[in-house]
Amino acid sequence: MKLLPLLLATLAALPLAGAIDGEPERGFPLRKKFPDLAAVSTEQFLAMDGALVIDTRTNAEFDVLHVAGAVNLPLEDMDRVALGLLLKQDKDQATVFYSDDFVCSKSYKAARKAQGWGLQNCSVYDSGIFEFAQAAPDQSVYFGQPIDQEQLNRVLLDKADLAKRSVGPKAFIEMMRSGKFRIYDVRDKRQRQDYPLRVAKTAKLGVEQFIDYLKKGVVPTQDILVLDNAGNQIKWLQYYLEHHGIEDYTLLEGGVTQWVRAGFNEDGKKAANGVKRPR
Predict the structure, then answer these.
(1) How far apart are CA 264 and CA 166, in angstroms?
(2) Which residues contact 116 (CB under 8 A, 6 or more apart)?
(3) How far apart, in whole angstroms, are the C-alpha atoms of residue 5 and residue 62?
(4) Distinct helix (H) and strand (E) counts, the chain
(5) Angle between the 207-216 and 233-243 helix axes, to the nearest 10 degrees?
(6) Pairing mode, if any, of strands 4-5 and 48-49?
(7) What is the pLDDT of residues 61-115, one digit of tens each?
(8) Strand pairing partners for 203?
């Protein structure tokens, strides 16, 4: 990234909430929630030099698409020691946190943590990775490789792409019961314990293990069903499925959370008296 020095004085001059020069007019709700944290626009982010750029998303999300030169430090793994190692104990190091988009709070929560540990020269790029990639594809990395605008337009998935591959709980359960599909439950162990599904021939894997199976070629290229807890993981897993050549797959819209809201119990049957909601 071609950047100009980011100094404390520059950060102090940045607006802390609302619209930023060079930015499209739209709501940035988290700027009002975190008014003490400096937010930078895409233009300002691209103009920085020497800043430590931290991606606060999961490893799986980072591996799909990230800012070139960024370091992955997931919010859930971020502690004082891990951040200190990245900063080399230099609390004056200019640091920028980012995540998915302007409604994802991970970057703000990470910056607030960092400030609490004494890092004052930090800011948040809250437009997120997708807007950055569209603005600067040549400074973006897709599955470990540089990417250009033409490639980016070809591989980026949107809500319509997700919708084409997703079905609601009733249709998904019917497919599960047909015996024609390999089923993957990619919820984490705690989520599966909170609401265990009693459906035969379901592989119970975490996201990372499922991705590992994809890389090893263990997952069939056709007739697979994938479900998560609330529809958040499958948005990213779709990139892995497409990248690894899985041709025929179906995703559960809204995950197990939607399954429960639709009134289905752990066996996939309609419950007369309602069902307990997963935590």
Answers:
(1) 18
(2) none
(3) 25
(4) 14, 14
(5) 10
(6) parallel
(7) 999 999 999 999 999 999 999 999 998 878 889 999 999 999 999 999 999 999 9
(8) 184
| Percentages (nearest 5) of helix, strand, coil residues in the chain | 40, 15, 45
3-state secondary structure (DSSP) of residue 166: strand
* Nearest residue to 70 via CA among 47, 51, 49: 51
Please give the Cα distance from 167 to 175 (Å, whole number). 10
Residue 279's identity, in one-letter code, is: R
CB 126 within 8 A of CB 108: yes
The closest of 250, 187, 182, 165 to 220, measured between CA atoms, is 182
At 107, is the secondary structure helix, strand, or coil? helix
Give just the sign of the alpha carbon dihedral 142, 145, 149, 150: negative
Alpha carbon distance 119, 105 (integer Å): 19
Model pTM above 0.90:
no
In this structure, the number of other CB atoms found within 10 A of the CB of residue 237 comes to 23
Enumerate long-range contacts of 196-204, CB under 8 Å, 24 or more apart. 196/266, 197/256, 197/266, 197/268, 198/266, 198/267, 199/173, 199/267, 199/268, 202/176
pLDDT over 80 (residue 19):
no
The secondary element (H helix, E strand) that includes residue 155 is helix 149-155
